[in-house]
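Technical note accompanying the year-one report. For the benefit of new consortium partners, we illustrate the data format agreed upon in the data management plan: each record pairs a sequence with a structure-token string. No post-processing was applied to the example shown here.
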Amino acid sequence: MRWPVVSVRAQPVYAYRASRFRCVRPVGLYQQVFFMPSDTTYMEQALALAAKGLGRTSPNPMVGCVVVSDNQMVGEGYHEYAGGPHAEVNAFQDIAQPQRKQLTVYVTLEPCAHHGKTPPCVDFLLQEDIARVVVAMEDPNPLTAGKSVAKLRDAGIQVDVGCCEAEARRLNEVFIKFITTGRPFVIAKCGMTLDGKIASHTGHSKWITCEASRTRVHEIRSHVDGILVGSRTVMLDDPSLTCRLTNGFSKDPTRIILDAGDYLDSNRRVFHLNSEAETWIAVCTDRDYPEADEVIRVPQHDGGVDLAALMDALGERGITSLLIEGGGTTHAAAFKAGIVDKVMFFVAPKILGGRDAVSPVEGSGFDTVDEAIQLEHMTATPISQDLLIEAYVRP
């Protein structure tokens, strides 16, 4: 049997480029790690646990942990919510004392090495009788960044890094982007017909996608920190921009509205909601908006709000992930500004037609096909009769 071989080192340097996460390791610092099939199995269990924290842990990462003794799993846990106990602590809660010997710990992210709302997890692990720690990926946070791996090894504990690393990076793509750039991970979403229309030539758009797709959108809203639309969308459609799930976890994202042309008025629904989430307005003018919870003033760019500057401002306010649900103009501006990391297009089996029907990405477009924005890692998932197309913007 051939086992997967992964090259790792104690302290990699992480670089971020438009949704592509790569581990840059200087030549000569590699060591070979041979992962057993059981390592992969336990790490996959830890990743499944980590995913339970989706939407609840921001601005922290999702982390899962599995503890093994004598080839038997004796503990499991995950980071359940921001400010709560970390995955490692939760995994050890119910482990009986006789089982706390020569343990192997599987954790999806390098244990933290700094004091935050909770003590460092690496110090917690050092109090236990641990023989080996298997880490999916090292922490891109400069406050940890290989320090815990080094500390555990200095204590005589075997530490192997890189088991299911690609899966771990995809799981925490939001955290990696935010912690390395200070900007939110941005998703461009739309619902369109098979011929690429989001509304008819009259502006009618309800409903292009099916009910199952709309429910999926509300699930996405509950997982992100913020949702962005243009003021024209607010004035024409009067949306609530809330998460309206009847089952399971439901959390409203912060609503951010672009208003470069003084279009908004205080009668829109977004200003009169029974919601714990706030409504912010991003502008490049001196206009006041007493109905808004906050006004973010950024420079003007190409006749509208400077979206790159806005991403910096949102990052400073703790927005780690952002869903763009604007119309064609907002999407075009976002792609032109280079802020989009991922696309999620819901495609309905309908043909709307019409030269003047609304497209999901408008603006002036590109002169040639060669200049088009390139996507990669594309997947297609059936959502009832619709199809969800997901892809990442190529660097």
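Partners are asked to follow this layout when depositing records. The mean pLDDT is 88.
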